[in-house]
């Protein structure tokens, strides 16, 4: 059976569903790589990254989808070609050449900038500061 890697975002609208949610995640611990929770005032979000067969992943997402008080969305990617050749034919870090005659524009973010939620962004060793 082909292995896949993927993620699932779980919207927890009813905290009473948390015990069922944790039970399902515990049963599928063998395929879970990472789990991250985002508690909010009236709801929570949980992000889970997993790697497994389509049967195991389907079992996880199917069981989560049947729990009242949750909304679940998932995305899957194939692990790669059996010969080890990366999918897509190359690096995921591709840069596009600027349009001929277009001015070069470089935007820097000040090191003291913050996201709307107050998290700092930017690099401390910003050479453009």
Entry summary:
The chain is α+β, with helices and mostly antiparallel strands and 129 residues long.
Give the helices and strands, then pairings.
Elements: E1 3-12, H1 18-27, E2 32-39, E3 44-53, H2 54-65, E4 70-78
Antiparallel strand pairs: 1-3, 1-4, 2-3
Mean pLDDT over the full residue set: 76
Query: Could you say which structural class the secondary elements and strand pairing correspond to?
Result: alpha+beta
User: SSE order, as H and E?
Assistant: EHEEHE
Measured between the Cα atoms of the first and last residue, the distance is 52 Å
CATH topology annotation of the domain at 3-79: Alpha-Beta Plaits
| Uncertain stretches of 5 or more adjacent residues | 90-109, 121-129
What profile does the largest beta sheet have? 4 strands, antiparallel
- CATH level-1 class of the domain at 3-79: Alpha Beta
The portion of residues forming beta strands comes to 25-35%
Strand order of the largest sheet: 2-3-1-4
The CATH H-level superfamily of the domain at 3-79 is ACT-like. Chain A, domain 2
Number of strands: 4
Helix content: 10-25%
**Rg, Cα atoms, Å:** 20 Å
Separate helix tally: 2
CATH architecture of the domain at 3-79: 2-Layer Sandwich
What is the general shape?
elongated
């Amino acid at each position: 059976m082909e292995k896949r890697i993927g993620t699932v975002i779980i919207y927890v609208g009813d905290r009473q569903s948390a015990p069922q949610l944790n039970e399902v995640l515990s049963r599928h611990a063998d395929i879970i790589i990472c789990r991250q929770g985002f508690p909010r005032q009236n709801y929570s979000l949980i992000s889970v990254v997993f790697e497994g067969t389509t049967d195991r992943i389907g079992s996880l997402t199917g069981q989560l989808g049947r729990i009242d008080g949750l909304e679940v969305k998932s995305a899957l990617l194939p692990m790669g070609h059996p010969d080890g050749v990366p999918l897509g034919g190359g690096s995921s870090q591709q840069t596009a050449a600027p349009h001929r005659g277009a001015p070069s524009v470089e935007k820097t973010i000040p090191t003291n900038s913050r996201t709307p939620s107050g998290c700092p962004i930017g690099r401390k060793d910003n050479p453009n500061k």
